[in-house]
Amino acid sequence: MSVRYKVFWAISIIFSVVVIGLSTLILWVGMNNQGLISNDTNGIKPQEEWSNNWPNVVFYEVFVRAYNDSDGDGIGDINGLTEKLDYLQELGIEGIWLMPINPSPSYHQYDVTDYYGIDSDYGTMEDFKHFLEEAHDRNIKVIIDLVVNHTSSEHPWFQAALASKDDPKRDWYIFADKDTKLTERGEWGQQVWHGYRDNKYYGLFWEGMPDLNFDNPEVRAEMINIGTYWLNEIGVDGFRLDAAKHIYKDKEKEKNIVWWQEFRQTMQQVKEDVFLVGEVWTSAAEIAPYMNDGLNSTFNFDLSSKIITSVKDEQDNGLGTFLTRTRKYYATMSKDYVDSIMLTNHDMDRVMSQLQGDVNHAKMAASLLLTLPGNPFIYYGEEIGMQGIKPDEYIREPMRWYIKPEGTSQTTWERSRYNRGANAPTVEAQIDDVDSLYNHYKKLIHLRRSQPALILGEIEQSKIKAPGIVIFERIYEHQSLLVIHNITGEIRNLSLGEESQYNQFLFSSDSSSQVINKENQVEVILSPYSSVILTVEK
Ligand code: CA
Questions:
Q1: Which of 3, 146, 264, 347 lies 20 to 30 Å from 109 when distance is taken between CA atoms?
Q2: Closest-CA residue to 97 (of 297, 293, 353, 358)
Q3: What is the whole-number distance in angstroms between the Cα of residue 117 and the centre of ligand 1?
Q4: Which residue ranges form the domains of the chain, and what is each CATH number?
Q5: How far is the CA of 35 from the centre of ligand 1 (A)?
Q6: Strands of 521-526's sheet in order across
Q7: Are 211 and 251 in contact (CB under 8 A)?
Q8: What is residue 424's predicted lDDT score, i.e. its pLDDT?
Q9: Of all helices (H) and strands (E), which one includes residue 317?
């Protein structure tokens, strides 16, 4: 090849590169100009514009023992939790659910020995009142676990019942008589009759938790006293009601609903806006009657697994349709029900373990949770991707605050199996990393708080469908949002139809996702694992 030809080819190549580069740039700028985007605020309003929608808020579930230690004994406590209220406020949390804080012989405290007290491991009643004041000052409401189905076998009531058959407390529990079938098994195949000789008693969960007899009006009255005390004298804002479907045995389960109606009516007389959320771990059909004046809310366990399997398989498994149907059904029972939604709680393997540590999947699970209708509950540590697989102790490990936890307020209540060593997620490592899971949660929670349609809007399935895309509308009064999640690792183009329907590009989780206008047809280009929200003209 002659020198002249070499120069010619070199100039041609440079020219082509410049032309291709320039046209790409022009095309890119053109797409942005044509787009519907005005994305300066990223959909999130400043804090002073957030509305207080209690009880429709984002909750955070705390296991106090594992959370934060204020006095150096390694056990999380109330004062330690108070120290972390700024952290929770910053995250955008407006409601806290505390797992049981009453005195109890067990680490988890679901077997109570005094319904009017605070466990000494956790602090004093004064500490708790101070915590409530500090939480309320930050517009954070507090609900506590109320475990009424059973007491501890060490509760003085049960000890009195065991000591004498003539004690009035004997009838507060369920003792066997000559007709009792002592071989009876519970729904998990477990033994339900415990004790010796003339003192055989019913305990659905465990021999250390004898069930109370709710046919005895004194028991019902006492539970109403306890609820009144916490609302009125102490100042909590509601209760998470443990084992709400087991108050009566399965064969007379309709009495559960009557009891919760009685409880709700009296609690509402004490505090008009009290929030009562029940653990009714069963199908939507069986849950629905509880919403009929009984409870404000129940947890949606079925939705949890739908969200997690969708993001894991990168395939919408119909969670929008499921939710639309369930909500329509609940609405036939109650006008003001609240669906409490979550990824996991203290009884389930941690979501990050279910997702094998995949941060992109964890981010999409959070994006789905925080854009769906209901009250999202975040289990402590979920926001940084803590891991944990049952047995229960290992899904309740010390909250990881610090990269080097030695000598800090981080709890050591047990030795961590899943969240230890240099690679464990920590708040310290994630708080300044804009791409961290923590900041993803924070962004989505703040977005939710600033959009009435995300907080209060009904869900409607979109007619648009595409593989790996979860798409639905959230509608509230005159506002309607089209929420689009790409739960796959690939770029996805989606045609949304005529432009006139859409008037604003509200939110994008990823700056490289785009909405473009091609001959009056709107197309959205979604980056892998990303979400886009548009406002829709109604
Ligand atoms: Ca402590």
A1: 264
A2: 297
A3: 17
A4: 34-46+457-535 (2.60.40.1180), 59-148+216-450 (3.20.20.80), 156-202 (3.90.400.10)
A5: 55
A6: 492-498, 521-526, 514-518
A7: no
A8: 96
A9: none
Q: Which residue in 157, 159, 192, 152 sits closest to 176, CA to CA?
A: 192
Q: How confident is the model at residue 145 (pLDDT cuts 50, 70, 90)?
A: very high
- Residues composing the chain: 538
Tell me how far apart the alpha carbons of residues 163 and 140 are, in angstroms, rounded to a whole number.
44
How much distance in Å is there from the Cα of 77 to the middle of ligand 1? 5
497 contacts 458 by C-beta, under 8 angstroms:
no
Pair 54, 273: CB distance under 8 Å: yes
| Amino acid at position 117, single letter | G
Q: Are strands 141-146 and 238-241 parallel, antiparallel or unpaired?
A: parallel
Which of 126-157 are b and which e, b meaning 16 or more Cβ less than 10 Å from the residue's Cβ?
A: ebbeebbebbeeeebbbbbbbbbbbbbbebeb
Over 70: is that where the pLDDT of 311 sits?
A: yes
pLDDT digits (tens, 9 = 90+) for 334-389: 888 999 999 999 999 999 999 999 999 999 999 999 999 999 999 999 999 999 99
Taking phi over 0 as left and psi of -120 to 50 as alpha, with beta for the rest, 147 belongs to beta
Quote the pTM value: 0.91
Reported as a single tens digit per residue, the pLDDT across 473-486 is: 999 998 899 999 99
One-letter amino acid identity for 285?
A: A
DSSP state of 372: S
Measured in Å, residue 174 CA sits from the centre of ligand 1 at 37
Whole-angstrom distance, CA of residue 236 vs CA of residue 142: 6
First to last CA, the chain: 67
Find where tokens 């648009």 sit.
464
**What is the Å distance from ligand 1's center to 107 Cα?**
13
- In sequence order, the β-bridge partners of residue 484 are 471, 532
Q: How many helices (H) and strands (E) does the chain have?
A: 16, 18
In single-letter form, the type of residue at position 500 comes to S
Helix spans in 431-484 (H)? 437-449, 452-456
> 129 CA distance to ligand 1 centroid (A)?
17
* Residue whose entry in the numeric block shows the structure tokens 């909500």: 327
- Calculate how far, in angstroms, residue 70's C-alpha sits from the geometric centre of ligand 1: 5
Which residues are marked as active site? 242, 279
Strand ranges in 245-364 using DSSP code E only, listed in sequence order? 275-278, 297-299, 338-342
